[in-house]
Amino acid sequence: MNWIEKEVNRLTEKYKTNCPFEISGLKNIHVVYWNLHQEIWGFYKYERRNRFIFINSNLSHDKKRFVCGHELGHALLHTKLNTPFLRRNTLYSIDKIEREANEFAVNLLLYDKSLEDYETKFDILRENGIPYEMERFL
After folding, report:
1. Can you tell me the distance from the alpha carbon of 93 to that of 133, in angstroms, rounded to the nearest whole number?
2. Strand, helix or coil at 59?
3. Which uninterrupted H or E stretch holds 115?
4. 8-67 tens-digit pLDDT
5. How does strand 29-34 pair with strand 50-56?
6. Is 95 helix (H, G, I), strand (E, B) or coil?
7. C-alpha dihedral over 70, 82, 98, 116, to 10 degrees?
8. Which of 24, 46, 58, 99 might form a disulfide with 29, Cβ 3.0–4.6 angstroms?
């Protein structure tokens, strides 16, 4: 188990949920829905000891949930770094902090799920509203 998985386990056990929206609220991280350009899914901003997750209000519920998990990863793993916009092409990013935020989101959203309960990796991703590009984190 790597450090990101340990952090997800610690959070979910402490707060008794793997919902990124609930955890954000409990950690006093403000989630803001904004009418962003269709290519921009969301971003994280740190300002004067306040943490904000901005999510494109035009996304489907599943995408909002994934974006919240990804940006929550930034808020907790990279607290003082403002991050670039999360775009669809960012899902393929090789940038270290983007990879870590994606891994955090996948581990959080799939907490207590087992690959053995699904036929394929794509089934577990689809049924849990996670983009297929995240398959490498399973």
Report:
1. 10
2. coil
3. none
4. 999 999 999 999 999 999 999 999 999 999 999 999 999 999 999 999 999 999 999 999
5. parallel
6. coil
7. -20
8. 24
